[in-house]
Specification:
The protein has two helices and no strands. It has 52 residues and is mostly helical.
């Protein structure tokens, strides 16, 4: 067994196609985080009122 096959099996291990909306591969969840100076800046950024 080569490393690529082991890595692929490791990534997909335990994925149940029938329990996950018939997806052929495990969905990848991407996340991010932001740092703002305060709630006003946050509100402006997410309502797209801030000019870049």
């Amino acid at each position: 067994m080569n490393d690529q096959k082991l890595a692929t099996l490791t990534l997909h291990a335990g994925h149940d196609v029938t329990a996950n909306g018939s997806t052929g591969a495990e969905p990848i969840c991407q996340t991010t985080s932001y740092v703002f100076d305060g709630s006003n800046q946050t509100a402006i950024s997410f309502t797209t009122l801030e000019t870049k």
